[in-house]
Amino acid sequence: MNFGRLNLNLLRVFDVICEERSVTAAGERLGLTQSAVSHALNQLRALFNDELFIRSGSVMIPTTRALELGKKVHQALIGLESAVSAEKFDPAQTTRCFTIASGDYNGTTFLPAVLRIFRARAPHAQFRMVPLGMNVVHDLDIGRIDIVINGVSKVPARFSYDYLYSETMVRVVRSGHPRAEEVLAGNDSDVFGRVVVNLSFGDEIDGFVSRHGLSQWSATSVADLGDRELSPTQDWAAMVSNFHTAMAIVASSDMVAELPKRLVAAMASKFDLEYRDVAGPNQGGDLVALWHNAYGNMPDVVWLRDVLREAAQDFEVSR
User: Fold this and answer.
1) Nearest CA among 266, 232, 233, 227 for reference residue 247
2) 277: CB partners within 8 A, 6+ apart
3) 102-127: per-residue pLDDT in tens?
4) Which residues of the chain are in CATH 1.10.10.10 domains?
5) What is the pLDDT at residue 3?
6) Nearest CA among 92, 156, 160 for reference residue 121
7) Which fold would CATH assign to domain 1-87?
8) Under CATH, which number does the domain 163-286 receive?
9) Ranges in the chain annotated CATH 3.40.190.10
10) How does pLDDT run across 196-246, given as a tens digit for each residue?
11) Under a CB-based contact definition with an 8 Å cutoff, are residues 261 and 167 in contact?
């Protein structure tokens, strides 16, 4: 490939297609028509002598060559952006897309407060929340995610974090539960079955995360289950991957769950739930904003960290 023929804008198009896996979505992020993105992609294919992306339905699947290029191109663009914007970052003028990885708890309770600050101070910026998943460590490493909001108990040296706020747990049943007072007090709840929320991405993904030195806050006693063989009627009857599903199950059954207090308080009327504070070792945990050291001191990410801390100050008071 003749490097002199390479237009930097083409690499930006390539990078966004890698992230979005869609020509249409890439165009929306870049402010380009679908035709313009397709034209840029054709130029890239000619330059690299590779298809780069193969359409499968509405999804663009990267080729092996595109996967090899993707990480290097993304890191190079971040480095270039850092170099040209190191002296000053103006949130009022930026059109940057900030990406935060988090779960449904923060999406319902905390991030709306963050977005209010965004709209007031960075009206042209884009904000994207992506789910936590097995690629979270990789995406932090390459700068595809700016910050992860979650609980952590072990952080490798290449990451840093700010404490944001603490959360406590409540025991939850549906309104009209036949023995609500007894179950909310922690007595005989096993008779009705528990709904356990597993935030560990599943065994295979959790193993991946553990090997990379990043583990997350577990909001339920599932972290203590270990390798015990459990009777569903004694310890748990259902395991789900998010808090909203747990609330929906509790609302339509006589089962009980232990869930974050702010989330339950916000959604109790919608799901018609009753709740009570949990006592004992499984009371909750701390939530942090975590970033990669290679990108965390860039002016735009520093601004984002400040926004999160500011939003968290009022949020902590609401506990």
Assistant:
1) 266
2) 168, 169, 170, 171, 261
3) 988 898 999 999 999 999 999 999 99
4) 1-87
5) 56
6) 92
7) Arc Repressor Mutant, subunit A (1.10.10)
8) 3.40.190.10
9) 163-286
10) 887 654 433 344 444 555 554 443 333 333 333 444 444 557 888 889 999
11) yes
